[in-house]
Amino acid sequence: MKNSLIFALLIFTSLCQTAGAEPLAPVSVSLSLTHTGADKWRADYVFGEAVDGLRLGPALAGYRKQAWRVLTPGLALVETDGQEAIRGSGKPVTALSVEVTLFLPYAMNNYTPFDRFSDGGTDVYTGFFDGEAMQGEHARPLRLSLHLTGLADEHVITPVLSAPGDAGYAYFGPRKPATAGAATLILDPRTPDWMAAMLLETTATISTFYEKAFQRKLGYQPLLLLSIGNLEQPGLSVKGGAIGKQVVYRLEGKALMGGSPTVRQYCMELIAHELAHVWQSNVARGGIGEKEAWIHEGGAEAIAVAALRQSGLFGKDEAALYASKLIDECAALKGSVDSYRGVYACGFKRFADYDQDIFALWKAMMETSETSGEVYSTAMIDAVRQRPGKLPAAPH
Question: Helix or strand or coil: residue 290?
């Protein structure tokens, strides 16, 4: 994910188990998310066994407090020590329902609950409906089955999830996806013509390039969702990121209308960076972990710089400018990867300092991760670089 993006990797995995005990078995639950009005949805949970409540995780910038209304009598949304849950007086239930209203504010470094398209279409993040079933003193993970229902004549797209616990954005709206290389896209109708053309070309070119560079096909078509808003406000605001088998963008600001060379280059950098994350995650086991974010974020920057140059989308000077901005930013951060921007800029510099072909390095890391089940780590990078048969040097 790139500059000003809000999608930080957030994994809610508390098992609430005693030391040395086996993990508690998940509770099966059917979640029906129904679009009931222009700005309203109803979430109906049906549990496979009785529960005392639903633990939802961290409070999120007022989202659930302002946008959720519990419909089931005797239950309420409560917050304790920054954690939210739906629970009541202790009487077990096998079902609960919540009315959810459109909520467009967002918490920095987190997923947006909703993205609204100018034609009324909406992306809804399903991860905020997941959590844990509360039973006495135990909290058990959910094995969630998601069912979506839209308004009349509305297209509904369910996120493609690889495993239980994964999340993504469901789409409710009038648009149908368009194909762009190895990906499909849903574009806001207010997307400027220059951006629509650039997005289609860049996505197709970069996705085709990554397939060849990593010698690894996706086996699926990632869905790219782009919403446009607030074209009246000055400047440019870009929020979005890769999640699962999707890439979601929210773009705002007057700068989108002009499409200056600077704005065009920034948007191309964003696309190349996010698609790099898609390929980093394109492994059957292992992949991106919870720690050492500089590896996947700085790695995605290094991959994007090289891909834009080698695919011909950027000239030598444009690619050098992209790289120099990151290196200068890292110098201001004194080389530290301990800050939000440090994982991008200084993560990039670490990969640049290896002076090895970024695609050969990451190809080897992907193969190692898939074979061993390990997540990407500094130890993995060191082991790959020390193997017999030196990796090729970075092209200059």
Answer: coil
